[in-house]
TrEMBL record, chain A:
Species name: Streptosporangium sandarakinum
Keyword Oxidoreductase: yes
Classification via Pfam families: Pyr_redox_2
Keyword Oxidoreductase assigned: yes
InterPro entries for the chain: BFD-like_2Fe2S-bd_dom_sf, FAD/NAD-bd_sf, FAD/NAD-binding_dom, Metab_Enz_Cyan_OpOx_G3PDH, Opine_Oxase_asu/HCN_bsu
Official protein name in the record: Thioredoxin reductase
UniProtKB/TrEMBL annotation, chain B:
Protein name: Glycine/D-amino acid oxidase-like deaminating enzyme
InterPro entries: FAD-dep_OxRdtase, FAD/NAD-bd_sf
Start and end residues of each FAD dependent oxidoreductase domain: 3-356
GO molecular function: oxidoreductase activity
A GO cellular component entry from the record: cytoplasm
Tree of life domain: Bacteria
Comp. bias intervals (Basic and acidic residues): 368-379
Start and end residues of each stretch annotated as Disordered: 364-389
Protein species of origin: Streptosporangium sandarakinum
Membrane-spanning parts: none
Pfam family, one: DAO
Length: 471, 389
């Protein structure tokens, strides 16, 4: 018999680990699955081992806490790192709400080069798959040297690579600050932080208004010490270079983000980020209801206990609304406790935790409202600007598709191919939806990760008989 | 007032509008969504004569294959006359396949087991032989539909063709029994005639006019691989089981892999068939079966990655024939829907025949097997009997 866990948690970031720990402390048999070789998710994974040792304190107080939870979890739960989930299925039970006998099968690919398929079964599922970067296209964004903000964080893992680089950070949202501070601390020459949205300087950064004074002051102190200029209502609107990035055009923007005046800044690295896109393909596969977050982004709809619309399936962290690591962790804890209670275990109520989630969620909403993406970014594009880098689709092709009668992102994709390539629209989906004149829809990706036909066919692994026989 | 309102901007509606405008009629095409947003946007782009049994659908397919060749001259969409290779698992199937090909009377070559790899170097060993159909082709269906719409009204002596997306038809204007236009959420549009090209939703549109068309969704999944550097699959390749599945009446799941390469590099793998309503929930067992059958045809595919899968809903009629022609129960309303999985292939012939009917010309094919009232119990006694499953 294949083992059936009480709870499978997808994602070993702040939400997943906290949820898994609560559930296993309550007595559930838990398995945690993550694609990366290390735990931490987008938020903690990219901090280098040395970072914390160099500068303990406000900048990354969360990391120590996370590592304590991780250590506690490791002795209590099954951990499957390096497992990429390509599909989840729910079998048995009934859609009307009965959970008795229902199980979820998580289909993963384990390993890197020598990947092998593996199916994990559980009676409940917690989706904590987080979010990925949301870039906006602009001329030259396909040049080597142009990174997403999250990609730049990843660079920090080897600070030798970063030291000496001339870096520009641009985009919108509070994430730019830790990126810029981290790069500066690691020895990069940060030529400027250009925040498209914020009209105010660092002194009136919205983080301060939301009781995050210590965190914001920490970033500000690092930027000040390294003499990094911070400019609101500015953004990089073009990147230049022959084979690799040599300089960028920085524009002062009007309230709608249309360039008002430009100048040139020399740099060899550009880190760009315009917020995050929650990774929804797994909840969408399961048929979980979604809703629109404050900024129009589709997120998983959950109740106060983090239950999705599908019985036995829970969600926490950025998939239910981008709000940062602290909120994710609190939501994860709440979810883990709800799963345990729903499975009949005695879990004492913790009203303070629910209040904490509410408070942090209100803060996240305020940040979303403080950092909207404004429509003027479309003016940064030229006819030949690639909207989709995988399939090399220029803006002109998107416009031609609209002339031909494409009125939404899907039909633009069908006529002009943006989003058809390797990343399956993860990078360009937001921009294509905007250019098609609609709010981005929840992604429909029946195959969440590339999977070899041989593995899908079950040829190399004569399929696990138990996995096929539904209870 | 337009001469014709076409409901549906899929490939069939686009072809009807295209040929009607070419015949000098002023045409307005309406769609509640975008161009090619329904089943056209979820297909493979099959233009097949090989999978049709002798009869009215094959006649339609042969006419259509020729028209696609001509329409390819418009440019704007990929058209690949790559040919189709049907392979047989054993001698018995090969004999049946060869007999079918002889009866079809279309251009074909019987291929011995030893010659199969001349056509498809990566084909798995062990097949008994096959039949090659040079007329089988592939179009990029979404761009084809969009191009037919764009080009229909261009040229001297033609009518106008305008596309209005985001318009939902809510009813029909009537003068007695006669249909004299459509009601939409954006106002009424009187017209000389109305063409129902709503595909899988054609039955719902017909119901707005008070007439019954038994069109049901038959779901199909398609797998798309990563782009391949070297073409691994040169033609459309499928096993003889596909022909049986296409003609089957079963509501249950049937799969038979149809494998082909595309100019942009990925390999497309169809085709599953199941009647489960408009349910889009992913079925891993279906994807698994398609993958297994594809690898059985081309073992080298085992190491290639699937990066995408999607599903669509074929407009299924109980006798597997489309509905083409004026509805005697609602004069002025013409139907062009219910093509099941062959809508891309059959679109030009359908549009051509509809345009002939609209202009009072003598149709190039006998429309009786496709007539809209053939499913009514009191009218089913005449004409061609329903095709055998």
């Amino acid at each position: 018999m294949t083992r059936v866990y009480d709870l499978a948690v997808i994602g070993a970031g702040p939400a997943g680990v906290a949820g898994a720990l609560e559930a296993s402390l309550a007595g559930l048999d838990v398995v945690v699955i993550d694609a990366a070789p290390r735990p931490g998710g987008q938020y903690h994974r990219h901090l280098p081992d040395s970072f914390h040792a160099l500068r303990p304190g406000a900048l990354h107080h969360g990391l120590e806490r996370f590592m304590r939870q991780w250590e506690a979890l490791r002795s209590r739960a099954e951990i499957l790192l390096g497992h990429r989930v390509w599909a989840v299925e729910r079998t048995g039970g009934d859609a009307a709400g009965g959970t008795a006998g229902a199980t979820v099968t998580v289909r993963c690919l384990a390993g890197d080069r020598e990947e092998r398929p593996r199916a994990v079964r559980a009676r409940a599922l917690l989706i904590a798959t987080g979010a990925h970067d949301r870039p906006l296209p602009f001329p030259g964004w396909d040049l080597p040297g142009v990174l997403t903000a999250g990609g730049a964080q990843a660079l920090l893992k080897g600070s030798l690579v970063v030291a000496g680089r001339r870096v520009v950070v641009s985009g919108t949202g509070p994430f730019l600050l830790p990126v810029a501070a981290g790069l500066a601390r690691a020895g990069a020459d940060v030529r400027g932080v250009y925040e498209a949205g914020g009209r105010f300087g660092l002194a009136r950064h919205p983080l301060l208004a939301a009781g995050k004074a210590a965190e914001a002051a920490g970033y500000a102190a690092v930027l000040a010490r390294h003499r990094v200029p911070y400019r609101g209502r500015h953004a990089v609107v073009a990147a230049h270079g022959e084979d690799t990035l040599t300089h960028v055009t920085v524009a002062r923007l009007d309230a709608d983000w249309r360039p008002v005046a430009t100048r040139t800044v020399e740099c060899d690295t550009l880190a760009c980020g315009y917020g995050f896109v929650p990774q929804l393909e797994l909840p969408v596969q399961l048929g979980c209801a979604t809703r629109r977050d404050a900024d129009g982004t589709p997120v998983v709809a959950v109740d106060a206990g983090r239950r999705t619309s599908v019985p036995g399936v829970y969600a926490a962290g950025e998939t239910t609304g981008v709000g940062g690591a602290e909120l994710a962790e609190a939501e994860g804890r709440l979810a883990g406790r709800t799963v345990a209670a729903d499975r009949g275990l005695r879990v004492p109520p913790l009203p303070a935790l629910a209040r904490r989630v509410d408070r942090l969620a209100a803060f996240a909403r305020a940040l979303h409202e403080a950092y909207p993406v404004r429509p003027g970014w479309r003016d940064w594009l030229r006819d030949d600007t690639l909207v989709c880098r995988c399939e090399e689709v220029p803006l002109s092709a998107v416009r031609e598709a609209r002339r031909l009668g494409a009125t939404d992102a899907r039909s633009v994709k069908l006529l002009a191919r943006p989003g058809m390539g390797w990343c399956q629209g993860r990078m360009c989906g937001y921009a294509v939806a905007c250019l098609a004149g609609e709010d981005p829809a929840a992604p429909r990706r029946p195959i969440a990760q590339p999977v070899r036909l041989g593995d899908l066919a079950g040829l190399e692994h004569p399929l696990r008989k138990d996995d096929r026989d539904d209870p | 007032m337009p001469d014709v309102v076409v409901i549906g901007a899929g490939v069939v509606g686009a072809a009807c509008a295209h040929y009607a405008a070419r015949a000098g009629l002023d045409v307005v095409v309406l769609d509640r969504g975008p161009v090619a947003g329904g089943t056209t946007g979820a297909g493979e782009g099959n233009v097949l004569v090989s999978d049709k049994e002798p009869g009215p659908e094959l006649d339609l397919a042969v006419l259509s294959a020729g028209l696609w060749r001509e329409l390819a001259g418009l440019g704007g969409f990929e058209y690949e006359p790559k040919g189709g290779l049907v392979v047989a698992e054993d001698d018995e199937v090969l004999a049946a396949l060869t007999a079918l090909a002889a009866g079809q009377g279309v251009e074909h070559t019987v291929v011995d087991a030893g010659r199969l790899t001349d056509y498809e170097p990566h084909l798995a060993p062990g097949f008994a032989g096959g039949v090659f159909y040079p007329q089988d082709a592939q179009v990029q269906p979404m761009l084809a539909a969009a191009t037919l719409l764009r080009e229909g009204g261009r040229g001297a002596g033609r009518g106008t063709l305008s596309l209005r997306t985001g318009v939902t038809v809510t009813g029909f204007l009537r003068d007695g029994e006669r249909v004299t236009g459509v009601r939409t959420d954006r106002g009424d549009i009187p017209a000389g005639a109305v063409v129902n090209a709503a595909g899988t939703w054609g039955g719902e549109v017909a119901a707005l006019a008070g007439v019954h068309l038994p069109i049901l969704p038959r779901r199909g999944f398609i797998l798309v691989t990563e782009p391949l550097d070297e073409p691994l699959v040169l033609h459309k390749v499928y096993t003889a089981a596909y022909v049986t599945n296409v003609a089957s009446d079963s509501a249950g799941l049937e799969t038979s892999a149809v494998v082909e390469g595309t100019p942009s590099g990925p390999v497309l793998i169809g085709a599953s068939r199941e009647r489960v309503g408009f349910d889009r929930t992913v079925s891993i067992p279906v994807l698994e079966r398609l993958a297994r059958q594809a690898v059985e045809l081309f073992p080298a595919l085992a190491a290639r990655r699937v990066i995408r899968a999607y599903c669509g809903f074929r407009p299924y009629c109980p006798d597997h024939l489309p509905v083409i022609g004026e509805d005697p129960r609602a004069p002025g309303l013409y139907h062009a829907c219910g093509h099941e999985g062959a809508g891309i292939g059959l679109a030009p012939a359908t549009g051509h025949l509809i345009a002939q009917a609209l202009t009072g010309a003598r149709p190039g094919l006998d429309l009786d097997p496709f007539r809209p009232d053939r499913f009514d119990p009191d009218r089913s006694g005449t004409g061609t009997p329903a095709k055998e499953g």
